Amino acid sequence: MKNNEATIFVFIASIIIGLLIAMNIGFEGKDNFLDVKQYNEAYNERSKLYSEVNNLKQQYYSASSKLKKYDSGDEKKFKVLDEIQNEVSSNNIILGKSDVKGPGVKIILEDGTSFDEFSSSLLIHDADIVEMINDLRNAGAEAISINGHRIIYDNYALCVGSPIALNGIKIVPPFYIDAIGNEDVLYNYLTIEPTHIKKLKFRQVKVSIVKADDIKILAYTGDFKYKYMNSTNEKK
Amino acid sequence: MVAFVGLLIGVILGIVWNVDIPIKFSPYISVAIFACLDSVFGALRGSVSHNFRADIFVSGFFGNSALAVAMVYLGDKLGIPIYLAAVIVFGGRIFDNFAIIRRLLIDKAKSH
């Protein structure tokens, strides 16, 4: 009796196992196995696609929420106006037309002093300022000011004797350069990477870099002028 | 003998029905198969040595596979291959059981 019972149970169990095995082999036969390299590639591909999908989702979400704001509510016009104002103010922040604050680094550059000889390499030149701005932008600085003057998209620096003309405004050393961005990234980039600061230090220019949590950068006070360029999709 | 017949029937049924499990569950099924196989070997050993108990067999059959699947899932989440523990234990027990079955059967054959 006991043996019979065991036989029945074993019979049923082996049918189940056979089913499972057949199910598993069914798709293993389709050659779905990858070696390590292929797996890694596929994995990377997948994560890339995931992040793309996430990005697109975010874009879609923000766009659709904007659209909803336009569409819904009885105070449509006000909402649209608000939205437009928001966009304008964020554009102003990007352009440099409004005061901003945030974490970042403060850099002080001062002409070097040497007792034995005077050399032009001790001085800070216009090109140094340009390179500094370039380095900061490369490190992801979002807003930069030099001696309180906001650096915007069309800034240039020119040597005019002892001072440096920054967009026509004469500034003299010491140069206080403030930059808003990720403070650690900015600091580490400037101190570790072979940036222009290294060259300045080598030239015995006095350089100091400090991280700061709360930097205020004032708005650009000049005008935004353009004469020759026109929008290509202008509506008439 | 019964086990092989059942296995054959099961495989044929599976091929005829052609059920596809999502590839995600492939490792789970594999470990579950191993756990079930272990239970079947245990049952065979029980039937040969005349101490088979249905309740223990059924609970082991489903409990082992569920535990193994849970281990695979946990290992997947934690990033360590815990399922290896299940594979090693079940594999070792299958061989143990097989060795005992072998001995018992050979003894039986000799005594006749």
Can you characterise this structure?
The complex is a heterodimer of chains A (236) and B (112). Chain A has 236 residues and is α+β, with helices and mostly antiparallel strands. Chain A has helices at residues 2-28, 36-71, 76-95, 126-138, 183-192, 196-202; strands spanning 100-110, 143-146, 149-151, 157-159, 164-166, 169-171, 175-180, 206-217. Chain A is 48% helix and 19% strand. In chain A, a hairpin with a 4-residue loop joins strand 4 (157-159) and strand 5. Chain A is elongated and about 105 Å long. In chain B, helix 2 packs antiparallel against helix 3 (54-78) and helix 2 runs parallel beside helix 4. Chain B has one domain (24-111). Chains A and B meet through helix 1 of A and helix 1, helix 2 and helix 3 of B.
The name of the CATH topology of the domain at 100-217 in chain A is Alpha-Beta Plaits
Distance between the termini of chain A: 98 Å
Number of β-strand runs of chain B: 0
Query: What is the element string of chain A, with H for helices and E for strands?
Result: HHHEHEEEEEEHHE
DSSP summary, beta strand count of chain A = 8
The CATH class of the domain at 100-217 in chain A: Alpha Beta
DSSP helical segment count of chain A: 6
CATH superfamily of the domain at 100-217 in chain A: Protein of unknown function DUF881
User: Biggest sheet of chain A, open or closed, and with what strands and sense?
Assistant: 5 strands, antiparallel
Strand order of the largest sheet of chain A: 3-2-7-1-8
Mean pLDDT over all positions of chain A? 81
Shape of chain A: elongated
- Pairing-aware structural class of the strands and helices of chain B? mainly alpha
Give the uncertain stretches of chain B in residue-range form: none
Query: What oligomerization state is this entry in?
Result: heterodimer
> What are the segments of chain A in which pLDDT stays under 50 over at least 5 consecutive residues?
none
Name the helicity range of chain A. 40-55%
Mean pLDDT of chain B: 84
